[in-house]
From TrEMBL:
Organism: Candidatus Gottesmanbacteria bacterium RBG_16_52_11
Transmembrane segments: 12-37, 57-74, 86-106, 118-136, 148-165, 191-210
Record-given protein name: Lycopene cyclase domain-containing protein
Entry keywords, A to Z: Membrane, Transmembrane, Transmembrane helix
């Protein structure tokens, strides 16, 4: 799709990098503090902050890039120019959030131990932004659902394959529930926030910061 939609690649690439790298590091560190998930084996010789596998950041980039380029190619007929203004509006909140996180990490790391952290991360970064954005722009819901439906099945296959190969685990019990499927077990939060709301949340951020909301 990137080759078939070259005019959309630059904007999608910048958006994906601005979100995936800083937010991926912060979320992965919180996950490590709370045993939400863990990547036991990494092909790289080090982990960021001693905990974050670089594979998580690579996965996070494509987790964002893929639904956005799909959406841009098949469903979005709006503007596709890269604007310095939206980059600034997106970058400053991300920088502020990362600075706050780093301050907490080095000064009061105990604050990062959060009961049901996966649930609260999903609510704060996916559920609330999606509901808020779509309450103002409900006409986008049908396009979001089409995109999310496709990536739901991809996420399911990816999850089952990853669990079969033991590429990641969920070592803690700090979840609101579990789903058992074909002999595999994963948290309900994984199903809700990645399978169902993942693409919808990403597209809400994309339309708000980087597109024309049409």
């Amino acid at each position: 799709m990137s080759f078939r939609t070259p005019a959309r690649v630059k904007k999608t690439l910048v958006f994906s990098l601005l979100i995936s790298v800083p937010m991926g590091i912060c979320i992965d560190i919180i996950a490590a503090f709370n045993n939400s998930w863990f990547v036991p084996v990494t092909v790289f010789p080090f982990r960021l902050f001693g905990t974050v596998a670089l594979e998580d950041l690579i996965w996070g980039f494509f987790f964002i890039y893929s639904p956005v380029i799909f959406y841009e190619h098949f469903l979005d007929k709006g503007k596709h120019r890269l604007s310095d203004r939206w980059v600034k509006y997106l970058a400053w909140p991300v920088i502020a959030l990362v600075l706050i996180f780093i301050t907490v990490y080095f000064s009061s790391p105990e604050l990062l131990v959060i009961p049901y952290s996966y649930f609260w991360l999903g609510v704060i970064f996916f559920l609330l932004p999606s509901v808020t954005f779509l309450s103002f722009f409900p006409r986008l819901l049908s396009k979001y659902v089409k995109t999310a439906s496709y990536f739901f099945f991809l996420a399911l296959l990816f999850e089952l394959t990853g669990l079969q190969l033991k590429q990641w685990t969920f070592p803690g019990g700090n979840f609101i529930g579990w789903i058992d499927l074909s002999g595999f077990r994963f948290p309900f939060e994984e199903f809700l926030f990645w399978f169902i709301l993942g693409a919808i949340g990403i597209l809400s951020y994309f339309e708000f910061f980087a597109d024309d909301r049409k």
